[in-house]
Design goal:
about 230 residues, 2,3-Dihydroxybiphenyl 1,2-Dioxygenase, domain 1, Serine Threonine Protein Phosphatase 5, Tetratricopeptide repeat, four-stranded mixed beta sheet, 8 helices, 9 strands
Amino acid sequence: MADERTYPCLPCQALDDSIAFYESLGFRRTYRQIRPNPYAVVVREDLQIHLFGMDGFDPASSYGTAIVSVPDPDALYEAFAAGLRERYGKLPIAGIPRIGRPKKRYGTVRGFSVVDPGGNWLRISKLRDVEDDPKAPKARNLDQVVEAAARLGDSHDDEPRALATLIAGLARYTTATPRQKTNAYLYRAELEVRLGKPEDARASLAAASAQPLDADERAELEKDFAYIAEILGS
């Protein structure tokens, strides 16, 4: 049948906190009830999320997930990030809630994730994008290492393994191009901030800044450098 819809229904510890979080992302509340059970609906254009409260719920143990496909995940990230900066005074990148930047992840599509106050993941990717062909041959290089680290750190929520993967990759691919090394050091810096290692992150940012990029490459990476500076508070 045409015009069918499926809506995620996600648990939360405090209904109003979750509503406020989604409002900062540009959603609007269209429904809320407290009895007989806490329940709410938030809507942003064609995106609709249902929320329900649970007594004794622990967001850190949530398995709630919603897959969200959108025409332009990068534009949506910028809109979400602006709202979160306004709400929290900074970009929340670690703990609960948090948001990650759009990245290509090994074996899958480009996208980003948001973790809401209930510990639920919104996994956002480009509409009609396709995953990598697992049978296609791939050249091993530092870009591939960064994609593998991004899958560990941003999809599997395993930042320590992601960081270890990057460190090993940088040590192995010493002849990688300056652009490849810059990307790796920038993501390494991001992971180090998320893991509470600001001094290590500053060292990684310095290593990225020291790469001999040409003017076009540096201009393309300007936002990436600005992002690391922002989350470092510098």
